[in-house]
């Protein structure tokens, strides 16, 4: 090598070294979390965990650098979907390293995401060099008004949190909150700043398998809003928190003092925090050793920040607006593109919260400036009213409405009205008490009053304009379910609908709407009415066709086949086993969508009660008067104590099979691990259960069942599970898989090709056509046959045997002639009882 060439190489090495130094400087200057420094110092340390994937700080640094190069370095705004996975984090950090300001979008709220993108469309913006992050203001996700946060804001906020929580590189956080929510994002930033690990997941805290994985990863902390901890308690997952847990934090709204004490006593360390998006998340924290004694306070300012009270006109002595100063206070708001180029125009944050400072220096929030209302000349603190109601055991939301107050109450409506009137001295006409089933919580876990305001507006509109289509649908739900308290924003499933009431509701809606869409039971009255034209009158023309749920038609056909086969009018068995399949499908539609394990079990129990009570009633009366059934059969124990040959005790095999099938299903889902698996693997779990029942069958009785084995619970549970599979067959591939499983499970089991064909045909029809066209004139009779199927099955055994000897068609008609009126009377009585309970509760509120 010549001297000249050697000098060229030295210059190249020097240039590469300069480029490397510039790249390193860029990594540091555009990296508020110090990722590049941590990656260089501890490259092998785990930064992120997603499922089975572990990403070290070195790997994360490389991924971020790769994403930054792909974006191209330079100023601008980059919209990033804040998904709780490695790609979401890399997109955020990569945009920062590329020199972009990040507009963080919600991952699980497409409508809100679209509103943000509509207000701030992708494009070229003149951006101030300090601008790092754009977030929707707290509680207004999707609003065009954005909070402008700097790199310094992000870093100082993370450092303050790491300081008072004493975070180290050994900590492991669980991402229990959305990353587009400033509180959830602060968990990520504070941990990455100290070289700790974050387990990324978007699973609900109500899934106990989440906490099993948390234990596997040695999670030391998680963050939540008050609602998070309510969910932990109601789901039973509070008992499954990992032993590795060092602390938990709560923010995002006031937690009741008793709840703070409870969790402070239950967890190694429980930290109450206070903040706003405008302060990059945190402004105050309550040292955990004070939680038990001072649970009503927000504590002291975070390191580097200060709080003071600004006097407020008309406020009580010692009460003022909380004003925060610190390095994490935002640059300002952005409502138009020109705002993105501005530097800092906010130096302190007027929180809008009213507070006091106690003698020991701790701050307490006692109200909110915007939560004051003028009612008949009186200045009313709505938060204080809610607190006083809560102290008296009434859970409510209080909103300013018209010329007075609206109190929306989940429980104790009468005490709420009396308490508010007594406390405030308001006349009765200035107060409106509205019973509601739920006090909504938003996606960020905070109170969400928007649906309640919409409800109040809807009530006003209804009073002014009368019924519209949504109201007629709501009235249908209310009538069929005996729920006069039904709201327009509730669905048939929300209101407790099940397979027993689904049929009548379908028929009534079929008369009301041109077409009833698939999945209507999960739509609220407002959602179902949206996009539809005005309700039309009942169909009378024989030329009109109605679009009907296939399961409704199959239920009607199945019960006709059952009774016709028993009366020897035809030989088409298989209807009862088809009804079992429909019961499994109903499980998916009405019971499994429930949000938590307890609610799932409650819904299954309600369906079980709706079948078992009529069954026990009919069999019990027969046992006492005619002696057809023994008391083991009445108790549903014929499978245990009955004969191994067909006797009269086997007549009610269907009722016994469906009841114990539901009990077995409920028992499985009550196991946290199984319930969690079912939510994560909605198709695989019932498929596994089918495989297990088939293996048990083949190992004990072989391929073909004898009589009465074909009616025995261990072997017919398979058909309920097949209906479960049908309900989970949401793609062509899954429908083909279910078809194959149905053929394997059914063909050869009965030793009767006709019966097997009926069952397989029913399953294939459900899979191929969720809805079918039916002559409109047959809609009513089909609905009655389907809805009354249980009572017809129960009573036809009491009716047809003696009549069959005279006339088989007459025996068929007599079976329905008794079963249908019994169903009508039972349903109306149950509906009236349910309605009377609701009316009674309303009367108490007056």
From TrEMBL:
Read off the Pfam families from this record.
Answer: AMP-binding, PP-binding
Q: Where is the AMP-dependent synthetase/ligase domain?
A: 38-113, 130-333
Record InterPro entries: ACP-like_sf, AMP-dep_synth/lig_dom, ANL_N_sf, ATP-dep_AMP-bd_enzyme, PP-bd_ACP
Can you give the residue ranges of the Carrier domain?
A: 471-511
Q: Name one GO molecular function term.
A: ligase activity
Q: Give the record's keywords alphabetically.
A: Ligase, Membrane, Transmembrane, Transmembrane helix
Q: Where are the transmembrane segments?
A: 652-671, 683-705, 711-727, 779-797, 809-827
Stored PANTHER family? LONG-CHAIN-FATTY-ACID--COA LIGASE, SURFACTIN SYNTHASE SUBUNIT 1
Recorded protein name is: Acyl-CoA synthetase (AMP-forming)/AMP-acid ligase II
Naturally occurring in which organism (per UniProt):
Nocardioides marmoribigeumensis
Taxonomic lineage from the root: Bacteria, Bacillati, Actinomycetota, Actinomycetes, Propionibacteriales
């Amino acid at each position: 090598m010549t001297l000249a060439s050697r000098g060229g190489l030295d210059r190249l090495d020097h240039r590469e070294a300069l480029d490397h130094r510039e790249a390193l400087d860029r990594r540091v200057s555009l990296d508020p979390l110090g990722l590049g420094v941590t990656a260089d110092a501890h490259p092998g340390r785990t930064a992120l965990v997603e499922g089975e994937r572990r990403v070290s700080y070195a790997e994360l640094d490389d991924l971020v650098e790769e994403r930054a190069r792909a974006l191209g370095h330079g100023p601008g705004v980059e919209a990033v979907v804040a998904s709780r996975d490695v790609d979401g984090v890399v997109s955020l950090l990569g945009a920062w390293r590329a020199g972009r300001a990040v507009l963080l979008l919600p991952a699980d709220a497409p409508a809100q995401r679209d509103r943000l993108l509509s207000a701030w469309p992708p494009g070229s913006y003149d951006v101030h060099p300090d601008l790092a992050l754009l977030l929707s203001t707290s509680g207004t996700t999707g609003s065009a008004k954005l909070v402008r946060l700097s790199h310094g804001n992000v870093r100082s906020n993370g450092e303050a949190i790491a300081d008072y929580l004493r975070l180290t590189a050994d900590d492991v956080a669980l991402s229990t909150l959305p990353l587009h929510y400033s509180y959830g994002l602060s968990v990520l930033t504070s941990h990455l700043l100290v070289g700790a690990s974050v387990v990324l997941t978007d699973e609900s805290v109500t899934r106990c398998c989440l906490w099993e994985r948390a234990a596997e990863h040695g999670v030391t902390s998680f963050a939540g809003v008050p609602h998070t901890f309510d969910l932990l308690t109601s789901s039973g997952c509070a008992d499954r928190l990992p032993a590795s847990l060092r602390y938990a934090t709560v923010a995002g709204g006031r937690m009741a003092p008793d709840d703070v004490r409870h969790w402070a006593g239950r967890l190694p360390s429980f930290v109450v925090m206070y903040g706003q998006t405008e302060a990059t998340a945190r402004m105050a924290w309550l040292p955990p050793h004070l939680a038990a004694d001072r649970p009503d306070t927000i504590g002291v300012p975070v390191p580097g920040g200060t709080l003071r009270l600004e006097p407020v006109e008309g406020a009580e002595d010692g009460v003022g607006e909380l004003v925060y100063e610190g390095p994490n206070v935002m640059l300002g708001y952005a409502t138009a593109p020109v705002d993105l180029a501005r530097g800092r125009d906010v130096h302190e944050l007027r929180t809008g919260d009213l507070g006091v400072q106690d003698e020991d220096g701790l701050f307490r929030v006692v109200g909110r400036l915007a939560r004051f209302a003028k009612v008949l000349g009186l200045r009313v603190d709505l938060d204080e009213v809610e607190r006083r109601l809560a102290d008296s055991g009434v859970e409510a939301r209080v909103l300013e409405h018209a010329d007075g107050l609206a109190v929306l109450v989940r429980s104790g409506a009468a005490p709420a009205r009396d308490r508010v009137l007594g406390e405030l001295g308001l006349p009765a006409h200035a107060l409106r008490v509205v019973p509601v089933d739920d006090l909504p919580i938003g996606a960020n876990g905070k109170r969400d009053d928007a649906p309640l305001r919409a409800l109040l507006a809807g009530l006003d509109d209804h009073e002014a304009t009368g019924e519209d289509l949504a109201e007629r649908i709501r009235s249908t739900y209310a009538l069929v379910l005996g729920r006069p308290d039904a709201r327009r924003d509730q669905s048939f499933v929300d209101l407790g609908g099940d397979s027993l009431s689904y049929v009548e509701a379908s028929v009534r809606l079929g008369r009301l709407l041109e077409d009833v869409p698939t999945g209507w039971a999960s739509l609220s009255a407002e959602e179902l009415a949206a996009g539809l034209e005005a309700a039309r009158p009942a169909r009378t023309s024989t030329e009109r066709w109605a679009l009907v749920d296939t399961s409704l038609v199959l239920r009607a056909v199945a019960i006709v086949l059952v009774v016709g086969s028993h009366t020897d009018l035809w030989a088409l068995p298989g209807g009862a086993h088809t009804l079992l399949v429909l019961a499994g499908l109903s499980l998916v539609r009405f019971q499994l969508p429930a949000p938590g394990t307890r609610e799932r079990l409650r819904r299954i129990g309600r369906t079980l009660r709706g079948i078992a009570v009529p069954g026990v009633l009919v069999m019990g009366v027969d046992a006492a008067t005619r002696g057809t059934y023994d008391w083991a059969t009445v108790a549903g124990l014929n499978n245990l104590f009955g004969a191994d040959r067909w006797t009269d005790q086997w007549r009610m095999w269907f009722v016994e099979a469906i009841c114990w099938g539901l009990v077995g299903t409920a028992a499985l889902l009550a196991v946290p691990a199984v319930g969690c698996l079912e939510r994560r693997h909605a198709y695989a779990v019932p498929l596994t259960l089918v495989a297990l029942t088939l293996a048990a069958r083949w190992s004990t009785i072989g391929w073909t069942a004898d009589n009465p084995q074909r009616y025995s619970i261990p072997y017919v549970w398979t058909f309920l599970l097949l209906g479960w599979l049908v309900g989970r067959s949401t793609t062509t591939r899954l429908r083909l898989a279910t078809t194959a499983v149905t053929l394997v499970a059914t063909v050869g089991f009965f030793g009767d090709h006709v019966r097997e064909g009926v069952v397989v045909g029913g399953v294939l029809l459900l899979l191929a056509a969720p809805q079918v066209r039916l002559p409109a004139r047959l809609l009513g009779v089909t609905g009655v046959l389907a809805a009354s199927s249980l009572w017809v099955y129960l009573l036809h055994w009491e009716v047809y045997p003696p009549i069959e000897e005279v006339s088989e068609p007459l025996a068929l008609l007599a079976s329905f002639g008794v079963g249908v009126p019994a169903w009508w009377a039972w349903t109306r009585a149950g509906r009236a009882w349910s309605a009377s309970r609701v009316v009674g509760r309303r009367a108490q509120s007056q």
